[in-house]
Write a structure and sequence with these properties.
By secondary structure, the chain is of the alpha/beta class. Helices cover 33% and strands 11% of the residues. The protein has helices at 2-5, 14-19, 42-53, 67-73, 89-104, 124-133, 178-182, 189-203; strands at residues 11-13, 39-41, 81-87, 110-116, 152-154, 214-216.
Length: 228
Amino acid sequence: MADMKLAVGRVVDLAAWVGGGITQLLPVNRGDIVPTGTYVAYGMAAPVRTLFTEPSPPDSASMGLTLHEYLTIMLAPESTRAVFTGHSLDGTLSPMLALTLAGLGALKGEGLVYITARASPGNRGFANIFAQTFPTSTNTCPETGYAVWNKNIINSHDIIPQAWLTKRILSPAQNVKNILSIYGVPTISLIEFVVFWLNANANKSHIMYVPLPTTSCWASSLRRPLKT
């Protein structure tokens, strides 16, 4: 799974994939990528497809059903609240899982996303659709940065949220080049090589990865529970 996190050199057309029923996952030919498209990294879409299509264990309550099948047939009132949460890699998969469910019409009631330290899985089209589908909630504890839904909660000294945007001008706070200074100044030769590789790997995709809505949170502020 960790290897998939680095598979950002190929992308998937999110609308075509969801519209086709999510079982067939094919990377887009680089020559067919258009600026107005909605694309996500193949390495992120592949584990989401697994989550959707892998049947549940024989001894589970939803025996033999996939997640998509279970949620489709599940009877739930409008007051139902589905929370998608995760950290780091899981934080990258959670918004994709939530948005894909919404696109398939399988998300009943209210969907909320609570993610921390996630990388950017898609381009601006993906970020815009996510923000429209899951708008940021009002911060229930203004003196902290973490008491909010539908935002990526990050520590500015963590390198993971810096991936995979390669143009600093588009997001000075979140881009691959920031990794250099996180490890100290003057920069370390090994880190310079790693950042060069990360940058080249992301640019193979022929898209520009863009962060989802983000809030920065320091460890000293993590004292109060999140109000619902």
